[in-house]
Amino acid sequence: MKGLNKILVSKAELQHRVKELGAEISLDYHGQELVLIGILKGGAVFMADLMREITLPIGIDYMSVSSYGNSSTSSGAIVIKKDIDTDIRGKHILIVEDMIDTGLTLQHLQKHLLTRDALSVKICTILNKPSRRLVDIKIDYEGIEIPDEFVVGYGLDYAEQYRHLPDVWIVDTLELGIH
Length: 179
Ligand SMILES: O=P(O)(O)OC[C@H]1O[C@H](OP(=O)(O)OP(=O)(O)O)[C@H](O)[C@@H]1O
Ligand code: HPA
Ligand SMILES: [Mg+2]
Prior knowledge:
Bound molecules: 1-O-pyrophosphono-5-O-phosphono-alpha-D-ribofuranose, hypoxanthine, magnesium ion
Number of helices: 4
Radius of gyration: 16 Å
Number of domains: 1
Strand order of the largest sheet: 4-3-2-5-6-7
Order of helices and strands: EHEHEEEHEEEEH
Strand content: 25-35%
CATH topology: Rossmann fold
Helix content: 10-25%
CATH architecture: 3-Layer(aba) Sandwich
Shape: globular
């Protein structure tokens, strides 16, 4: 496809790491009431794979949020476009994301969910791009660290395209005229 010339993380690598994360989460939350919250749209693909690698009884739900995405407004709240309908009081929450980049989305969301009296709110992401971080955020379960490249596939989009690709590809931003 135009602008997609290089796979950064293969389907096989993703599958392998998702299995490991599922096993780790299953051990850590044994005997506890856990709800996974997948963040739409990007997180949907990872969420579907991860939940099937967890061997505990869990609840699942989804949210769609947007953050005011630059540092000058980083103190602003997130806008919730679609909320969960699960009552999370007294439950352990694991937010499931495809990517942590600046960290703004997750920082706001984690704080927000804690105000709803969850017992704990932790973060799981399949991809982490620490080079672009603007806020200090603790990632409890990290899949794969990637360099500062714009990537698509496995849920991630460019202009709403390419989310369905099973591998994670580097976008040649020059070739696509993105700056
Ligand atoms: O760490 P940040 O800089 O906040 O960026 C990460 C967020 O950006 C992407 O979502 P996006 O807002 O593009 O929504 P989408 O999942 O619908 O594509 C990604 O899925 C994360 O949610
Ligand atoms: O590399 C990326 N690709 C797609 N969406 C994103 N949102 C933050 N980083 C990225
Ligand atoms: Mg996006």
